[in-house]
Amino acid sequence: MAEIIGLPEPPPIGASALPAGTFDGEAVFVTGAGTGLGKAIAGEFARLGAAIVIASRKPEHLEAGQAAIEEIGGRVLTVSCDIREPDQIAAAFDAATDAFGLPSVLINNAAANFPVPAEDMSTNAWRTVVDITLNGTFFCAREFGRRHLLAGTPGSIVNVGASYAWTGGPGFAHSAAAKAGVKNMTETLAVEWGPYGIQVNGLVPGLFPHEDMTADIKGNLSRTNEKDVVQPAMRVGRLRELGWAATFLASPYARFVSGHTLVVDGANWQRRALTNPPVVTVRDQMGKGPFEG
To answer: How far is CA 25 from CA 22, 30, 66, 168, in A?
Structure first.
């Protein structure tokens, strides 16, 4: 009988599948790069020589992101930017271009998300998550695309998505709907802008625990077994693995990859059981009582 061993651990932090200096002389604009996944992605680009532009609404996130890039010896610029506001995005790209030249890569990582049963969701919650996750992603992509079209230069966009764009996301109706829009937009823009040298791809992370997870998401994880033993890989993701995937998609070695969404989750989203477990409502999973209006 075969021993259950799971997928091997990745190479250590600092390793890369790409040649050193792959992004020398280039700038990479990353939204939400002050925390978690965005910070990890930005770090891997910096290790490969890129100058990093971090865009975020929160000063503490800008400071954390800057410190992380400087710690590994990278060049970094922070810009305050609410991606719901196109004027702020334009100003952020102006600052980035003044500092490092027009960014050749855009990582649309910023998003809003929190678990809530659909019946409990406020109008403002729905609008805020869709506005940041879907509208903000498009506004950033549009600004990046317009500037490269005018300059006649190639570029690469990576939109960070979610697997429930395909499957639906009970407890995350707002985010799932927005991420489905992001996936569709990725495919649309890849076709529209391919003739002008701009590739557009998606990157979907699985479970990558990190210190910047929100309290409500940490609380949900603590009430479940959504950790190593329920992953087909028998482990969760390591942040650098997501960063490596992002750098590949935006690299010269992936120029013919466009309109694709790469899922980095050890096959977890494709897992199916031979027999269905009993249904547990979203409210029960979140530890909430009956809906009372």
So the answer is: 9, 16, 19, 40
Identify whether the C-beta of residue 10 lies closer than 8 Å to the C-beta of residue 240: yes
pLDDT 10s digits, 136-174 = 999 999 999 999 999 999 999 999 999 999 999 999 999
With a CB cutoff of 8 Å and minimum separation 6, the contacts of 273 are none
Q: Look up residue 77 and give its amino acid.
A: L
**Mean pLDDT of the 261-274 span:** 93
Q: Name the catalytic one among 164, 208, 244, 248.
A: 164
Residue 164 known to be catalytic: yes
Question: Domains, the chain, ranges and CATH?
Answer: 27-285 (3.40.50.720)
Distance CA 30, CA 54 (A): 5
Write out the DSSP string of 186-253: HHHHHHHHGGGTEEEEEEEE-----TT--HHHHHHHHTS--SGGGSTTSS---HHHHHHHHHHHTSGG
Please give the model's pTM, rounded to 2 decimal places: 0.93
- CA distances (Å), 60 to each of 32, 44, 209, in order? 12, 21, 20
Closest CA to 51 of 117, 9, 101, 8: 101
- List all residues 6 or more positions away from 146 whose beta carbon is below 8 Å from its beta carbon: none
